[in-house]
Amino acid sequence: MADHTSPLESSQLLSPDIPMLTSPPPPPHPPNIVNGDGPQQVILVQVNPGESFTIQRDDGQFQCITGPAQVPMMSPNGSVPQIYVPPGYVQQIIEENGVRRVLVLPQTEFHPGGHSPLHHPPPPPPHAHLQAFIPHPHIMHPPPHLYSGMAGGTGDMNPQYISQYHPAHTTIYSEQDTHPPHGRAAFAHRDERASKTYERLQKKLKERQGTGGGGGGGMALSKDSPPPSPQKSRGTPPSGGDLQNGLGGKGAEEQAQPSTAVTALGKSPERGKETESGALQERLNSICKPVVTDIQARGVSLSWVAPSRTEGDDEPKEGEEDPAEPSFTYEVSVSYSGKDGKYKSAYSDVELSATLQDLRPATDYHVRVQAMCNCLQGIPSEPVSFTTLSCEPDKPSPPRKASGTKSSLVLQWKAPCDNGSKIQNYILQWDEGKGTDTFEQCYYGPQKQYRLTKLSTASRYSFRLAAKNDMGVSEFSEVVHIMTSCSVPAPPLSPELIQSGVTWLCVRWYRPAGSPKEDEISYVLEMEEEGSGYGFQASYDGDDLSHTVRNLHRSTTYRFRVVAYNAEGKSNPSGVSEFTTAPDRPGCPCRLAVKGKPHPTSFRLTWDPPKDNGGSDVTKYVAELSEGLSGCSWNQVYSGSAVECVCDGLSPGCSYQARVHCISAGGESPLTEPLQVQTPPVPPGPCQPPRVIGKPKAREVQLRWAPPLVDGGSAVSSYSVEMFAPQMDEGREVYQGSEVDCTVGSLLPGRTYGFRLRAANKAGYGPFSERSEVTTGPGAPEACRPPHVTCKSPTCAVISWETPSCNGAAVSEYRLEWGEAEGSMPMCYTGAALSHEMRGLLPDTNYFCRVQAVNVAGVGPFSDAVLCQTPCSVPAPVSNVHALRESEMRVEGCRTTERGVDEDDDEDEEDEQARPLLYSPSTCLGLRWEAPCDHGSEITSYLIDLGERQPILTGPVTKYIIQNLQPDTTYRIRIQALNILGAGPCSHTFKLKTKPLPPLPPRLECTASSHQTLRFKWGEGPAKAQPTDSLQYHLQMEDKSGRFISLYKGPCHTHKVQRLNESTSYVFRIQAFNEAGEGPFSTVYTFTTPRSPPAPLKAPRVERVDESCEVSWETLPPMKGDPVIYCLQSMQGNSEFKQIYKGSATSYQLPNLSSSTEYRFRVCAIRQCQDAPEIIGPYSSTVILLPPRVDSPGVSGTTGSKAAEAQKPKRSMTDEQFSFLIIALLAVTSILIAVAIQYFVIE
What we know:
By secondary structure, this protein is mainly beta.
């Protein structure tokens, strides 16, 4: 199943035609029974070819399984699961040789004649409450033929195992399947063998119903259900060795027996989908093997042909629409372990070709292609084999040092992959010890090692390696640095202490003096603990010059020394150094408590020294205090050697936490547990001055205040507010209560009053706050004077105004409105300034503005509106630039080089095509743009910037053709408009490319000629045009008025000109063109038609006169001034024709005829040309003169008349009859040609 199961992708959308199964939780152990010997059973769900089976896993993901496949499902309990039977179908349980199978068959009524209607019901809607099966964990490969099977076992079918049914997933194929795998059509009637099979199955079914289902516990059919018939399998059932679910033997053979076929009255949508799916599957299976091209060492190119329609699918049936061509996806898989080896996917896309990269050189590969469409997957094609080419070897590994001395090195290396060609030599390069990136060759040969001598002591050398074969040299390996040996190092200096800890010491030492930098020296650090008696022990061995020794004892002395060594040996030990570890931190102080009674702002702490001082005396104690019970922020309040302290500067009525720790030479001790202390409360502190809420009215104000910042450690219970009237030193209480706001009334308008307040808690009243002044009755300001507008630039203006009368309240802000229409002016500024600058204005535009003042009392009226006009400016940037079409680059309306072209945009398309091109698209570029806004000053010209070329200045036009450009070149162009005020901004840069140069004209040759036709040939190529020809030709001929008319335009290389006059000279020229444009015309060619021969004459008339005869023929007029003569020939018996007359006469008398000889005559016309030889026309038909007969006197009259009648020549056809005959032949020929074109070309 692993080879046929694919995850549900986004393209495989769920549809009602695909059943969905909800998977229950997986069992604790995989089932190990197949024949029903345990509590779990395996049910095989057969998935037909070209169809899919969708299940829902326990993680909520959907999985789509495409056929052909066999899905193992598992029953959690020991019973046989019940298959869902939709309306119109019945289920039948058959047991054979201890194996039980369930058949889902269409509900048909058995008729002896073998004809029973069958309708495919639509699939029922999915049931959310139906439980499905989980996939079997073991991988099961599909059998070669699909069949229905179910593991044998006992038990009834439980409703909770009902699965949604659809014909696409039925475990037995019905006989109505329109696509059997071997292309055989379903039987329309039952044969004798099918009838016997049906009777045998019916008999077994009745026996089970009478005995309660035998020993299998199967479910009996209802009385209303018709007797089901066995279904025909899609092929021969698999052998017993291929069955994995216990089916085989006689039961499988009976399943494969053909049963009664029925004729469907109608084709349901599901039936049509199965037919279409089967046809598409056969089409996917018919893909041909790919074609290999362009084989390289590490790559190859492949191509293939899309699957073609099968026979019978070329044309849709009557009444059906032509189905759309499906979209195929192709997957290319590669194997290098043989044609039957494992294939790996290398390409998947919709293209019909692919290029495979990253192949191994000189390797045999096998490639096959597989077609897919939607959820269907075809059979892979036959594999095609190829071998990649050989190439240079792979990049070798760096050489390594095998051995060495102070003056020599022996290097070795391994052979890399030769890539199909044997490695002949190796190239070893080195830098000669100079330390540069310049390498020189030091060895070239087939060996895999090399010895270098006469080297410097303790020097570093760099090497790299390359391999060479017949195909070339490989890349060089990575550079490796190798040192030569040196002498034993000198004793290092005594080690030094960097830092010490409680259980560690960080020690460092120095490199021995005089040792070269290239010498690789290692060190051994030896340590001895004081009083241990073990002597020096090695604690470090390495290349570092420092080391931290850990796991030591606190306050303990240790002795250290260092030994240096290299490849030549060890040095003497250094001098001994003694270091002592630091002491440990002490324990926390004991019995933290408060001494005496806490005061509102202070209390006294006391504690005892720690029990463990960590090996050193305590130097000081630190006390910390935190306000509140959270313990988030701690502040140091004492640091000293005493064991008590006073914490002052506290807040009354607050909770505090206190803690203490001590410090010694070993560090800080842990903190004690926090001690909670509560200070008594005091009266609250002063409040903030009361503030006015809202706008003061004329006779009352509303005040509000906040609680005091310091409540004295107790909640505030009440407030007292006092008021001071104008010119009074004593205040009176106007409010007392617990609220934080009040309203004071009975005030005078326009007066200033003072207010103060105080708060009280359970400890008493606190001090008064500062006095706050409040003025009543302010008014809205007056209207401002009209503002003054000054234009700084075409896009910027400054508006200023004066301060109006404030009416007792200072103006807090001004509001400015600005707009192009007096009735619609949006607000553009709000603030306290007396001026505002407007930016981003349009040049040459009228604007209106007005202003109003605002204070705390309200908003004043607007000033009078002021009109201003911005000055003119440079034009706006050019936009909407387009390239001119070739049809617009015509003679009419064009101007000279580098001058603008202003044409009408609505010009007729046919007139544009009729005009010849004046400008070549290979050297010219036509531009069109829209005129930008002139900003009040008329645009005088445009400037076209071409980058490297000199800018082009044009007039006030919107079209221009740039000439004298390079063919097939891209130009970056931008356009700028100018007026009398200056140049506007440039347009966006856009790219245009000139076309390549058009082709040159070919040589024109006349290959055949007649008096009415001329056949021409030009260029090199086939006579007929190819579909891929991009080069075309245009042949023209000069008419009587001197103009050239078009004769042929197309890709062919030959053309025949007809309906010409004889002995006439004609002038021709030819032109070649392609997508680059039309090339120049060739020089004119003159060809002359020959003179036409005389027309054929009718058969001559012959009259016998005694011993002679007179031969006469028709007369031909002179041909364009050339006289016509005649030539008469005669033949006696079986001899040859001989000329007997030549002249201008139209009759001739032949004397001395023989009475026993038969004569034959024919005549032709000859045209006598003045400046050319004679032209002989075709001969006429032959007329026969028979010898006279000698008969008896009685019949002499009759015989004479018959002889005379026989001697008369046969009448020839008239001109009208001959013309009618030619027209009839032409009509018949035309009809035959039309029929042939209709049959062979169109259809």
